[in-house]
């Protein structure tokens, strides 16, 4: 059985920092990460979606975490076709057309080079490419996925689709085969299931190395409300227990399973991660920490 690593989709989210979860004396950048890494073995880096990372941060992240800790790093917005403010681009690239493939190549080069120290320190879990709700299945989308994978050749990649048609019954086998061909891990999700945009809670394994599950909460405001509205959800133990056999099944098929909570309102994500860790024990890889 593969390792099941449980954590959250950020350790720097303002709501978490303001919740009081970090104790006095550990609320600076270094203290927060060290405190988090004593309690969980994996975390998602969300900030890299909004701005390109830096090699300096990669080095600091590696220095402040123990061996075996994993960072799943979200791809910069431009690399997944999301709207990207010109101000978030490096100054020397701001006059370029954001649809220029050459710009995407250069952005990828800078993105990946900044993460290389993290990878060389054996802290990188995967690069998470989260595609937008309008990224519907079809020939153009498949071509874009192949271009993305060629750009990221040699790097571990996980793919999350936000358009439900990728995983509807008539399409799901083809989607899984596509991701397997790309050597990309499929991202399973937990979310409200009564919305037009709901992604079914499927657990395909398209890479023998890794499977990823992201828990978005079960808010009915998904896709319509504010960020707080979309992700406000406190997971009850019985909701998490639904996933226990699914996570075991994933671990039977992949060397490592990353379980990440994205219900980032106050400390809801870390509390849900703690509950899931306890429900999964002893299958879960734990650090033996309190908290």
TrEMBL record:
Entry superkingdom: Bacteria
SUPFAM superfamilies referenced in this protein's UniProt entry, alphabetically: TM1631-like
UniProt-recorded name of the protein: DUF72 domain-containing protein
Organism listed in the record: Streptomyces lavendofoliae
């Amino acid at each position: 059985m593969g390792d099941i690593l449980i954590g959250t989709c950020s350790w720097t989210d303002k709501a978490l920092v303001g919740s009081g979860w970090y104790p006095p004396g550990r609320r600076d950048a270094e203290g927060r990460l060290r405190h988090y890494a004593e309690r969980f073995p994996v975390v998602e880096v969300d900030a890299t979606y909004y701005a390109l990372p830096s090699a300096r941060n990669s080095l600091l992240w590696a220095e402040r975490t123990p061996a075996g800790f994993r960072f799943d790093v979200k791809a910069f917005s431009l690399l997944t076709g999301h709207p990207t403010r010109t101000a978030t681009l490096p100054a020397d690239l701001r006059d370029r057309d954001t649809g220029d493939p050459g710009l995407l190549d250069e952005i990828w080069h800078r993105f990946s080079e900044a993460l290389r120290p993290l990878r060389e320190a054996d802290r990188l879990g995967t690069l998470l490419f989260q595609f937008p709700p309008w990224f519907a299945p079809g020939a153009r989308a498949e071509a874009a996925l192949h271009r993305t994978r060629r750009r990221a050749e040699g790097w571990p990649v996980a793919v999350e689709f936000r358009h439900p048609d990728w995983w509807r019954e008539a399409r799901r086998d083809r989607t899984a085969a596509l991701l397997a061909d790309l050597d990309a891990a499929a991202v399973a999700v937990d979310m409200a299931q009564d919305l037009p945009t709901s992604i079914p809670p499927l657990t395909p394994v398209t890479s023998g190395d890794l499977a990823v599950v992201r828990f978005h909460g079960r808010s009915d405001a998904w896709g319509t409300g504010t960020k707080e509205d979309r992700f406000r959800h406190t997971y009850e133990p019985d909701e998490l227990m639904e996933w226990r056999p699914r996570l075991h099944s994933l671990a039977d098929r992949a060397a490592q399973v990353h379980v990440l909570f994205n219900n980032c309102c106050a400390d809801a994500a870390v509390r849900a991660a703690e509950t899931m860790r306890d429900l999964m024990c002893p299958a879960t890889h734990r650090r033996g920490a309190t908290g």
